[in-house]
TrEMBL record:
SUPFAM superfamilies: EAL domain-like (SSF141868)
Highest taxon of the lineage: Bacteria
Chain ranges of the EAL domain: 87-330
Native organism: Ornithinibacillus xuwenensis
Xref: PROSITE patterns: EAL (PS50883)
PANTHER family: CYCLIC DI-GMP PHOSPHODIESTERASE PDEF, SIGNALING PROTEIN YKOW
Protein known as: EAL domain-containing protein
Pfam families with a match to the protein in the record: EAL
Signal peptide annotation: none
Amino acid sequence: MHCKSCLIEGLEYEIRFEGNHNQSVIPNIINHLNRRKIDVKVQDNLLFIKEMGVNELIDFCRDHMQLALVYFRLPNQEWKPLSTIQETLDMQWIDEVIKKKQLTCYFQPIVDERENIFAYEILSRFVKEDGTLIYPDVIFEAARKRGRLYALDRLCRLTAVKSAAKIKDKKVFINFIPTSIYSPEFCLQSTTRLANTLGINPSQLCFEVVETERVDDVNHLKEILSYYKEKGFEYALDDVGEGYNTIEMIEDITPHYMKLDMQFVQGVAVDFNKQQVAKSMLRKSIELGSIPLAEGIESKEDFEWLKREGYKLFQGYLFGKPTPEIDDVI
């Protein structure tokens, strides 16, 4: 059983008409669309239309309505001016990426103080049909704008769990976007079920919270992490640095691992301000019983400084770049 957020079905747009003139023209636009065999539903000053009919609607609004007073939104999203709708229409390609599962997993090592491999982070990489890569920031932004974020995040999680089955004796870090999950019990059961089917020990998997700056509802995040913990998984907080929201979140969710944001890692050996942030996070991790991890390390000097201060785990190009073959980094 899947919820609508999992399925890549045709989108239905909700259109809102403001202003006396625009609302008086609503019957005309309904007749116009019906003549062209485009189904619409109307409720007060709202119109619901499938994506295939949106361009016809736009053309009518440009000719007969005050366009600045017409708005649209997708399910569970905010209202936007109709004049900006083309950006959402242009991102239909994300639907095909998800439907055809056009992604592959890359592996990046996480090492201890002696540079022995402690774990791997599994990173999703997206591939066009011609074989070229799509950058993650591009694809996640497209998914966000089209309301496909949960479907994409779910695909990434399940594919990562399948890839984790290749790694028998190391911990595996898997990213997830908490803002895409509305119900832990429902949305995450496929993840736990797949891990059980593959015979993966739950304690081997560590789910890593990404985009922490977007998390406004800390209680919702706590529900998600409580679900993971109940199932035997561990969890990490990514991109930890300075800022009230991040520190408050850390204290509320007490992660198993805390990853120092790379902006405070690169150059830390010679930058006093970065050193203060790194030390502050280290103290907080010790206070909460979390394991401190520094990511984005590219120089030996930064590695040695962080190691002397007391960091336990390290990740970055100094130890290995992400690669599609696990044998290349073992």
